[in-house]
Design brief:
By secondary structure, the protein is α+β, with helices and mostly antiparallel strands. Helices cover 29% and strands 32% of the residues. Among the domains are: 107 residues, Type IV secretion system, VirB10/TraB/TrbI (Lipocalin), CATH 2.40.128; 37 residues, no CATH class. The strands form four sheets. The chain has a six-stranded antiparallel beta barrel. Strands 3-12-11 form a three-stranded antiparallel beta sheet, with no helix packed on it. The chain has a two-stranded antiparallel ribbon with strand order 1-14. The longest helix has 23 residues.
Length: 206
C-alpha cells in the first residue's frame, strides 16, 4: 500500500505524537518506595491519619470537662491484614469545648488493651461523618454563676494571700469576665454509647 504526499503530511504529525507518548510511557518508573525505610523494634503500628471506629462509654457534660472520657473498641481494628487493636481495647482521654457551638472535642492519650497492657497514644474523636468534634445536645443554662462573682471571689482570695496576686487577678478580670460569662451560657451533653471515629494524630508504634 502506498501513500501520496497529501496522506503522508496528514499521518506524520500523528506518528510523531505516538512516538512521544510511547517515549514518555517507557521513561516512567514505578514508585520504588522510601529511600530509607524506618526500622522499628515494635510489632504493631498505626500511621498518622489512620481511623477506626469506637463507642463512647462515658457520658459527657461540657460543664464538667475535667472528667476523663473512655471509649471502647467493639470490633477488631485491622490494618494490613493484621489485628492492630483487639476488640475490648479502651481509649482514655479528656474533653474541651474551645470555639465550639454544639460539639465537644475529645483527645485520647492512652490505649489500654484487654490484658491490661497500656501505651501512650494521640487520637482525636471525630463525628461518624468524619467531621471534627462530637455533636451533642445544647442546653441554655439560665442558672449560670455570674462571671463577676467568680472573678471577684478569686481576686479576694488571692489578695488575702498576696496583694500582688490580688492585683494580677483584677488586671485579668476585664478580659476574663467576658470569656467566662460566654462559657456559662450553654452546656453540651453527649450520651453514653455514642459512636465515634478515632483519628490517629501521630504515628503510634507498640
Amino acid at each position: 500500500m502506498t501513500f501520496g504526499k497529501a496522506e503522508v503530511k496528514k499521518i506524520l504529525p500523528l506518528l510523531f505524537l505516538l512516538a512521544m507518548t510511547a517515549g514518555q510511557a517507557l521513561a516512567l518508573e514505578p514508585f520504588p518506595g522510601l529511600t530509607q525505610k524506618r526500622k522499628s523494634e515494635f510489632k504493631n503500628f498505626m500511621h498518622t491519619g489512620f481511623t477506626f471506629d469506637a463507642v463512647l462509654k462515658t457520658a459527657i457534660f461540657s460543664f464538667n470537662i475535667e472528667t476523663p472520657v473512655i471509649a471502647l473498641i467493639e470490633y477488631d481494628v485491622v490494618f494490613g491484614d493484621k489485628v492492630v487493636l483487639p476488640s475490648g481495647t479502651k481509649l482514655i482521654g479528656a474533653t474541651s469545648i474551645i470555639k465550639s457551638i454544639n460539639r465537644v472535642n475529645v483527645v485520647f492519650n492512652t490505649v489500654v488493651l484487654p490484658n491490661g497492657d497500656e501505651f501512650p497514644f494521640v487520637g482525636l474523636a471525630l463525628h461518624t461523618d468524619g467531621s471534627a468534634g462530637v455533636p451533642g445536645k445544647v442546653k441554655k443554662e439560665a442558672m449560670s454563676i455570674p462571671a463577676r462573682v467568680l472573678l471577684e471571689a478569686a481576686g479576694a482570695g488571692a489578695a488575702t494571700a498576696s496583694p500582688i496576686a490580688g492585683s494580677a487577678v483584677k488586671e485579668l478580670s476585664s478580659a476574663a469576665k467576658e470569656e467566662l460569662a460566654q462559657s456559662q451560657k450553654y452546656s453540651i451533653s453527649i450520651k453514653k454509647d455514642t459512636p465515634v471515629q478515632i483519628y490517629v494524630v501521630s504515628r503510634t508504634e507498640y
